[in-house]
Amino acid sequence: MKLENAIRWSYLDVLTRKRLETLTELFGGADAAMDVLSIELLGRLGIREDSAIKALVNLEEFNAVGYAAVMKKNNITLISMDDVSYPESLRTVPDAPVFLYARGDLSVLARPCIAIVGSREMNDYGRRVVSHIVPPIVQANVVTVSGLAYGIDAEVARETIAAGGTTVAVLGHGLGMIYPKANQKLADEIVQKGGLLLSEFALDVRPDNYTFPARNRIIAGLSLATVVAQATEDSGSLITADLALDYGRDVCAVPGDIFDPQFAGCHGIITRGTAKLVMSGEDILKEVGIVGSSVSQSSDFLADSPEEQSVFDSLSSLPSALDDLVVKTKLEAAVLNGVLTVLELKGAVKNAGGGKWVRA
After folding, report:
1. Which of 15, 36, 45, 63 could form a disulfide with 98 if both were Cys (CB 3.0 to 4.6 A apart)?
2. How far is CA 62 from CA 9, 223, 266, in A?
3. 270 and 206, same domain (yes or no)
4. CA pair distance 359, 315, nearest whole angstrom
5. Any domain includes 86
C-alpha cells in the first residue's frame, strides 16, 4: 500500500482485516479503493451512514502531507498488513490490526518474542519476579514484549535493558505521545537500545477504555508465550492471557503468596489449568521449546572479609529481614548495613524491598 493511502486509511480508522479483504476482492486493494472512496463504498464495508459521513468529513480536513512530515521528523514508520515487514507472528492472528506505527527497529519482530505482563500496582515481590525471569530470556536472545504501563510493564522494559536485551513496548495510544508521561525517558531508551515502540493507532489517538484491550491482542499476537508476572482477579493482564490462549499460544503464570490478592489472578489461571506454573526464565524458555544459556550465578562470589562471607552465606533466594540477618550473622546492625551495601555494589546481593535482602 502506498504510504499516502496507508496514512489516509489509518486516519479513517475503519479498516479491519475482513474489510481489507473485501476491498481487495472488489478493487484489487486499498490503493485503488481510496480513489473511489465514498459513503456508498464505506456502506458496502458495513459502516453505518452517520459514521461514514463523520469519517469522510474528518478526512477532508486531514493534512496527510503534514502528518507524513511529523512521522518523518519523529522517525516513525507506518506499515500495513500487505507489507513484507509486517510481523508474521501477528499476521496469523484473526483480528490482527491492518496498520502498525513503529518507532525503532522493526527487524526485532523477526526474533522470538515472549510477553511479560502484569499489574500496574506492582509490589516488591512482583518487581523481584521480573528481575528473576528476564535475564535468562535475554541471554537466550529472545525479545521481551510488554505495554509500557506503570508497574510490571515498565519494569520488564527496564530489566530487559539492564540485562543487555531488546524489548518491544506496544502502546494503547498513538505514537505522538507517551502515556504515562513519566515513562517518556524509558520509551526513548527502549529505542536507543535497539528496541521498538509499536501502536496500531494514529499519532494523535489518546488512551481510552477501548485502546488498551485492543493493544493487548497485539502483545499476545506477537509472542510465543504470554507470562503473567503479577495479577489480581480483575487485572487487565488476564485479558492478554485469554487472547494468547485464543491464538493458540502458551500462557504461563508466576505464583505468589496465597494470601496476597495481588496474585489471585495468577493463581486462578494456574488452578483452572489455562496457565503453566513457572518459577524462572528457564521454565518459560522450556515451555516454548527454547534452550537458554546458563545464567551466571552469584555462587562464584569471592568474599573479601569474614563478615562479607557470613552475610552472603546467610542469604538465599528468599527475602531476609535485617533483624533476621543480625541474628544469623551476629553482626551489629550498623556493620551489617555497611557489608550489605558493599555486597550490593559487587552485585552479590540485592535489596528485595521492604528492608529485605536476597542473593542476586
Report:
1. 15
2. 11, 35, 45
3. yes
4. 6
5. no
